[in-house]
Specification:
7-stranded mixed sheet; alpha+beta; disordered C terminus; 4-stranded antiparallel sheet; single chain; globular
């Protein structure tokens, strides 16, 4: 997937929209990527896929997924020079991912996606920067609880959004966020919701004894 993103980024005007919905450690409930680009870029993607032994870009994406077909969807729409590719993966296990990690500690979840981070990349020249100015990345992360820390200022409750343009969108976007785990039993002492449940249970037991 990273290679695909880089090729799209280096081939001209394109927008990549990512939505990741997280519920617990190591698993993304739903990961969706929408690529909006030109027929020229789409042709380059197909050519690269064929060089690697696949019939098409679609065949490459579906063939490289070690995921149950019920959890994976790939769709593409071509309208003149406009191409839109939609990829959806449900229950994505990231425990062996080199780019994405979801760690749980002390009742909090920490999410990190380094797909769009390449600290060793050389700064583009002036001409290349102008060429890459038409690139846009929109990344939305939904966590199971309120986000308490993130590498973006665009945070509202359990949702954080990153919007980047130009070459930095593909090499210098650090996706990181920490949230409450969302589970009533995840914090030390069970937290207020669990304490309320415990008190209610105790009250019901006492009532039953009285009866």
């Amino acid at each position: 997937m990273i290679g695909v993103i880089l090729l799209v980024g280096l081939s001209g005007c394109a927008t990549i929209e990512v939505t990741a919905e997280v519920e617990d450690a190591n698993t993304i409930d739903r990961y969706e990527m929408n690529i909006s680009t030109s027929n020229t870029v789409y042709g380059l993607l197909n050519s690269q896929a064929q060089e690697e032994g696949y019939e098409s870009f679609r065949d490459q994406i579906t063939g490289e997924r070690d995921i149950d077909s019920d959890d994976f969807e790939y769709n593409e729409e071509i309208d003149g020079n406009d191409v839109r590719i939609n990829i959806v993966i449900d229950d994505l296990n990231v425990s062996n991912s080199s780019a994405i990690s979801i760690e749980e500690a002390d009742g909090r979840l920490r999410y990190s996606d380094a797909t769009f981070l390449n600290e060793s990349a050389e700064p583009p020249g002036e001409d290349a920067e102008e060429f890459l100015s038409g690139l846009t990345l929109e990344y939305t992360l939904e966590m199971p609880g309120e986000i308490t820390n993130a590498t973006t200022d665009d945070v509202e409750g359990d949702t954080a959004t990153w919007t980047e343009t130009g070459s930095s969108a593909w090499t210098d976007t650090r996706i990181e966020a920490t949230s409450e785990s969302g589970s009533v039993f995840s914090t030390p002492g069970f937290g207020v919701p669990a304490a309320t449940i415990a008190l209610l249970a105790a009250a019901l037991i006492g009532l039953k004894r009285e009866l």
